[in-house]
Design goal:
The chain has 255 residues and is of the alpha/beta class. It contains nine helices and nine strands. Helix 5 packs parallel to helix 6 (165-189). The radius of gyration is 18 Å and the shape is globular.
């Protein structure tokens, strides 16, 4: 990829093969649409096969000719995640990205009311899925000339509140794990610098049109629209690996 094309809006994504984990929600749908628009081959996964099929179909219809596929993958199973990575690389010849959109939230009225059952739930959803995907996709991403691992995190990981102990701790652990992957990419690059990158996009929370319709008078101050998130995800490929590897890229003001 030459310097001129990398400077173009979608220069880093034309012909790229991008896997998207947690693709069936509003953020996933927006991301599939944006990546397909940019000319990427998109390989989506989610635990909900019906919602995944709807998201994949929507991206295909919106961008005729785009290759968008869907696969139900249990990301709590490291073996299943590895099989997904192997299958994707074998079918498409390369993997240039993994976007981790698996999300969820549980909280409490205050610290004393925190339920450790919430931790058990969030540890699986927000940490174990990151562990499975990073371990499965590290080597394929290193083989790419533009490999990117993109984690979506929350400002609460750096500034936890009393009622969000389990959620904030889970997000902080996911960030730490992702930063360890970025260090692996850095070491693999040696004196030339990393060829692949692991980056963290930080939001306060996400908002989409259905939320606005349900709460027409809410301001959603500081929230990031899912389409804005999708644009920021695509933008990670517009910068050299060394500029985004190991970085927290804030889409909301830092606390």
């Amino acid at each position: 990829m030459n310097a001129t094309s990398m400077g173009d809006r979608d220069g880093g994504l034309e012909g790229a093969v991008i896997a998207v984990a947690g693709a069936a929600g509003p953020a996933g749908r927006a991301t599939l649409l944006r990546l397909a628009e940019a000319g990427a081959t998109v390989v989506a996964s989610d635990a909900n096969p019906e919602r995944l099929a709807e998201a994949v179909d929507a991206a295909r219809y919106a961008h005729g000719g785009a290759t968008v596929t869907g696969d139900t993958v249990d990301l709590l199973d490291p073996g299943a995640a590895r099989e997904w990575a192997v299958r994707t690389e074998k079918e498409f010849g390369r993997i240039d990205g993994l976007v981790h959109l698996v999300g969820g939230w549980r909280g409490s009225a205050g610290f004393a009311e925190t339920s450790l059952a919430d931790w058990d739930f969030l540890e699986k959803l927000l940490i174990r899925t990151v562990q499975s995907t990073t371990l499965a996709f590290q080597e394929p991403l290193q083989r790419s000339d533009r490999g990117r691992y993109v984690l979506i995190s929350a400002a609460g990981a750096s500034n936890p509140t009393a009622g969000n102990a389990a959620y904030a701790a889970s997000k902080a652990a996911a960030e730490a794990w992702t930063l360890a992957l970025s260090d692996a990419f850095r070491k693999a690059g040696g004196d030339d610098g990393p060829a692949a990158a692991a980056a963290i996009l930080v939001v306060k929370a996400l908002v989409h049109d259905a939320m606005r319709a349900e709460r027409p008078h809410a301001k959603f101050a500081g929230f990031t629209d899912v389409e804005e998130l999708a644009e920021a995800i695509a933008g990670v490929w517009d910068k050299p690996a060394g500029e985004v590897n190991g970085k927290r890229l804030w889409l909301t003001p830092q606390p």
